[in-house]
Amino acid sequence: MTETVVFSSEWIASSLPGREAPLFRREFSVQGRISSATLHLCGLGYHEAWLNGLRVGDHVLDPAQTDYEKRVLYVSHDVTDMVQSGPNALGVMLGNGWYNQDRVWAENGLSYGQPRLLAELHLVFADGSRQVIGGDERWRCEAGPVTENNIYAGESYDARLEQPGWCSSGFDDSRWRPVVIADAPGGELQPQSIPPIRVVEALPPAAIDEIEPGIHLVDMGQNFSGWARIKVEAPRGTEIRMRFAESLSPDGGIDTASTGVFATGVEQIDRYICNGGGVETWQPRFTYHGFRYVEVVGWPGRLSAGDIVGAVVHTDLPTAGIFECSDERLNLLHRMALWTHRSNIHGLPEDCPARERCGWLGDANMVAEFSMWNFQAKAFWEKYLDDIETTMSLNNGIPCDIAPGKRGTKRNANPDWAAAFVMLAWYVYVHSGDLSVLGRHWDGMERLMEHFGEKADDWILEGGYGDWFDPGDESICTRTPATLTTTFWFHQCATVMSSAAIALRRPDRARRYADWASCIGDAVASRFFDRDTGSFGSQTANAMALQFGLAPDGEEPRVLDTLVGDIRRREMHLSTGIMGVRYLFEVLSRHGQGELALAIMHQDTYPGFGDLIRRGATTLWEYWGEEKHDRVHGPRSLNHPMMGGFDNWFYNTLAGIRPDPGCPGFGHFVLEPHPIPGLDWVRGQYECPHGLIVSNWQLSGGRFEWDVTVPQGASATAILPFTRQVHELEPGTHRFVVNQTDRTAGS
Predict the structure, then answer these.
(1) What domains appear along the chain, each with residue ranges and CATH number?
(2) What is d(CA 426, CA 489) in angstroms, rounded to the nearest whole number?
(3) Half-sphere exposure (CA, 13 Å, Cβ side) for 50?
(4) If you average pLDDT over residues 330-338, what whole number do you get?
(5) Catalytic residues, which ones?
(6) Which end of the chain has fewer CB atoms surrounding its CB within 10 Å, N or C?
(7) 733-745 burial by CB neighbour count: b if 16+ within 10 A, else e?
(8) Would the pTM of this model clear 0.90, i.e. be above it?
(9) 249-278 pLDDT, tens per residue?
(10) For the chain, what is the radius of gyration of the CA atoms?
């Protein structure tokens, strides 16, 4: 646990007018031998710091967004090796970030005020004495070379305005102005405990074309989030403009429509004005983009591959899971899901990296589990749960559709989106085994359940966004009543609350919510199940009913039959939106219909993933590509992780690694792979709190060979395919062979 710092200094701000990103500097002297030096700082909206001319750390876009009136994150850096005996200088540059986002949806009053800085350098000397260099009137400020910056609209940088040595000691700042003491943002100061945002990868261009004289088109070959880093040598005053987009127009130029211009009123544009006199390298600091293509205007001469790279920028979550298999289509879709998720983690789980960049709760619910399979994401999702809590505190205790930020406040979330608060806490608990996450959020979870109970009519919960973007061009959700999926989530929340209460040793609450779940299940079956057809009415409804155990007693085979029949009548096409995509493939595979699940994944005509791939998708789209949606609702995003829930299927069904909610944190877990004809081998790994779980299998000539690893401190129940034999496994490696013809198994 990071130790909380008690700040004693003042917040400071620039006394300069204008929109430039201000520079702050403070010189100080050190006498004596340093034992340790730690820089604690919070620069809102974003900050970068230097000490004695050297960049502090490798974070970018710090600190992560919060509801600043409720909590503010600060960042700490060990700078012991950077402090020198004698004169020193500390420098900080501030960007607007989310704190002063005043260009997009500005009519909603999203800005919290002008940028401001809280910084303290804590020095500990060898003799045990201490010194704090903090915020006060001794700081100086000046306008910097970043002349404009906005999260959505981009950044402008005039290298002619650079002041060499500004963050080193001995620099003449006599013409700089004194800072002003600023009001604190109002929120509680907390250490930033999530991994920072970093430049995690550099993508070389896949192609560069000069489409018109002086206009170059750069194709990075991959949709992602970040920016372009350029290296240029040009005369002083040369202006280079870069415009970013996800797609191309019919004439071969970039098309910025899907980046949300219709909603934001701005394009993603970076500008760089050269200083001249040599090779200059530049990348923005206080913005990021969602893009594949870059239009470069004003480049001196021919733009080559060595002049520009794509910097991939996102929260640097360590890897937890690895999946690969013999089917390249599945591998491709897995990579697409990962690229999409990576594009949408910048201190919070976003819906898209260009148009909105918001933490929609329903989207997060669809993403969180596959996030946890692939990344060590516990702290990230705990931070987002805290974001939901702070937004709730600004909204009379009820979640908003979006967290954090002002755009999501002032109205209650639709209940199916609000359900994410309960579900996310449960996912974190099950994957980590940390009971405190349930304890911290229990009161808020109960308030939400009371809200649901008050809104429900005979246990049916009306409203909701529903199975967002199922195929079709009539509306965004057509095939499954939103009231049905919302009530499904009401049931699932009640089930989770009962289990959470058991874990928290609250038996009365466990019984209460178990009773709720039973009543909701009966109400769903009574109102929505058609006993003549054996169906809840749609692929999504039937898949969710099977997943959540809501098929009436004895009716599960009929529900499965209607689901399978509907898919076959549609010639192996799905008809689901984000909720159906999350569960469809698991349900089919676990009920003996794995070949059908695989056929859907290989479907190359609309609606299907293959159709999107054929149309150039390298990330998951917000929809299934209907042109009418683009016309009616505005051009849709081409990088939207809410459609990625299928990625869970790779780990928990094909590789067969499943947590045991009764023993969270994988102290005990289940291994139950589901081999599918046509899938020759699967390799799955997952780094759980106890160590590495491995589930690798191959199927050839009717012979299934399976190698598993159970980490120390854990145990597992292995359920073999075909024979259904059960083996209780201790830590170590184990090998099983199953012959489909003689149905024998060995270990």
Answers:
(1) 11-145+161-194 (2.60.120.260), 199-315 (2.60.120.260), 321-654 (1.50.10.10), 657-746 (2.60.420.10)
(2) 13
(3) 19
(4) 98
(5) 356, 622
(6) N
(7) ebebebeeeeeeb
(8) yes
(9) 999 999 999 999 999 999 999 999 999 999
(10) 27
